[in-house]
Amino acid sequence: MENEKITIIEEYGRMTFGDYDKLLAIIDKCPFSANEYCPSAEETVSILMADLKNYTLFIIWILETGYETAENAYDRLFLSKEFNRKFSLAFEEDAPQDFYLSESTKKFHLPGCENVKRIMLKNEKMKRRRMEKNKWKSMTVRRNVTRQELLAKGYIPCRACCKGDHWAE
Ligand SMILES: [Zn+2]
């Protein structure tokens, strides 16, 4: 079911409200509601938070279709607090901007990233020593692209500068 839509989330650390709405649409089609069910705080830590990517839909299903009772109040509050700590929604859809692309690592960077500076400096030194161009680590600028476009082309976000793109660890 709806695999395409879930994949977007698995690749992203941050989710836009648009993507969240897609998840809610999946939940709306689900014939079961969580009602008073809620995993214990211990289960939340050891199971759900340990594999957040795969449990995101499940957690949102509990929070959206379940309700609070005297028995589950503590666990529900615990779950929503833990979830909100590790998961964030972004207002802006992926806006186009300039990214630096490394062909050797297939990573995309924001301008000003330490890794970009380091690699450019290394290339400059190699250039001065007249080393063959094939030994340089290629770093190219791509103007006005979105993260979605780069992800679709097989690039992955750099951990140093695109922190928000990764799941909180
Ligand atoms: Zn970077």
Mean pLDDT comes to 82
Q: What separation lies between the terminal Cα atoms?
A: 28 Å
Count up the helices. 7
Give the total of beta strands: 6
The structural domain count equals 2
Helix content: 40-55%
Which class of secondary structure composition applies to the elements? alpha/beta
User: Judging from the principal axes of the Cα atoms, what is the shape?
Assistant: elongated
* Spatial ordering of strands, largest sheet: 5-3-4-6
Detail the topology: elements first, then pairings:
Layout lengths: L2 H9 L2 E3 H13 L11 H8 L3 H14 L7 H14 L1 E3 L6 E6 L4 E3 L4 H15 L10 E7 L1 H6 L3 E2 L12
Parallel strand pairs: 1-2, 4-6
Antiparallel strand pairs: 3-4, 3-5
The chain binds zinc ion.
Task: Please tell me about this protein's structure.
- The protein has 169 residues and is α/β, with parallel strands linked by helices.
- The protein has two domains: 8-90, no CATH class; 97-168, no CATH class.
- Helix content is 47%, strand content 14%.
- It has helices at 3-11, 17-29, 41-48, 52-65, 73-86, 114-128, 147-152, and strands at residues 14-16, 88-90, 97-102, 107-109, 139-145, 156-157.
- The strands form two sheets. It has a four-stranded mixed β-sheet.
- A hairpin with a 4-residue loop joins strand 3 and strand 4 (107-109).
- The protein is elongated and about 70 Å long.
- The two termini are 28 Å apart.
- The relative contact order is 0.14.
- Residues 1-13 have low confidence and may be disordered.
- Zinc ion is lined by residues 109, 113, 115, 158, 160-161.
